[in-house]
Design brief:
By secondary structure, this protein is of the alpha/beta class. The protein has a domain of 132 residues: Rossmann fold (3-Layer(aba) Sandwich), CATH 3.40.50. The chain has seven helices and four strands; from the N terminus they run H-H-E-H-E-H-E-H-E-H-H. The chain has a four-stranded parallel sheet with strand order 1-2-3-4. Strand 1, helix 3 and strand 2 form a beta-alpha-beta unit. Helix 3 packs across helix 6. The chain is elongated. The structure holds iron/sulfur cluster. The site of iron/sulfur cluster has 11 residues, from helix 3 and helix 5.
Length: 191
């Protein structure tokens, strides 16, 4: 004889299987599913650590992007670092001379993977109006560039747009052959 008594208030167990839509709805109340690469990309895109490499007037414009009005922090890229070992988004803002090119490459090489590069303004992207032997005619001659932001100087909105373009690229795991095929230019003298 059993001492167990049934609780009359307990819901009566139903052996009916849940419909797929009910099951999905129920699962949504406590869990979500994703792919590992998607959630890693989501984390990366929302935690960019910029390293400003300001060499000329574009550097001043970049400061306003970081300031309270435009506030790059809203896009998850506020942790500005001045050490390449603590940054993953290099923002080159200004004229780069041939003499400075080995320094830029050295800094790029010191950054940890995965790393990204934004070329801000006409000078960094193409030499700008410095059509001269001593100015690099675009930083993509020495390092791989993910996003070029046009302008002289680019507006803060344009820079924000460049960061958003980079974030879209990261979120979708866009292939970056310019990075994969990059080699240190042989003509550059080591520091
Ligand atoms: S692109 Fe224009 S604003 Fe930017 S560094 Fe060159 S000259 Fe200055």
């Amino acid at each position: 004889m059993s001492n167990v008594t049934a609780n009359s208030n307990a819901p009566v167990a139903q052996n009916q299987p849940m419909a797929p839509s009910e099951l999905e709805e129920s699962a949504r109340s406590f869990a979500f599913t994703t792919r590992l690469d998607a959630i890693v990309a989501w984390g990366r895109k929302n935690s960019l650590w910029p390293m400003p490499y300001g060499t000329a007037c574009c550097g001043i414009e970049l400061m306003s992007v970081m300031g309270p009005k435009y506030d790059l922090a809203r896009f998850g890229a506020e942790v500005v670092r001045f050490s390449p070992r603590q940054a993953d988004m290099l923002v080159v803002a200004g004229t780069i001379t041939e003499k400075m090119a080995p320094v830029l490459v050295h800094i790029y090489e010191q950054m940890l993977e995965p790393k990204y590069v934004i070329s801000m303004g006409a000078c960094a992207s193409s030499g700008g109006f410095y059509r001269a032997y001593h100015v690099l005619q675009g930083i993509d001659k020495v390092i791989p560039v993910d996003v070029f932001v046009p302008g002289c100087p680019p507006t803060p909105e344009a820079v924000l747009d460049g960061v958003l373009a980079l974030q879209r690229m990261i979120a979708t795991n866009t292939p970056r052959p310019w990075v994969d095929n990059w080699k240190r230019p042989e003509w550059l003298k080591p520091l």
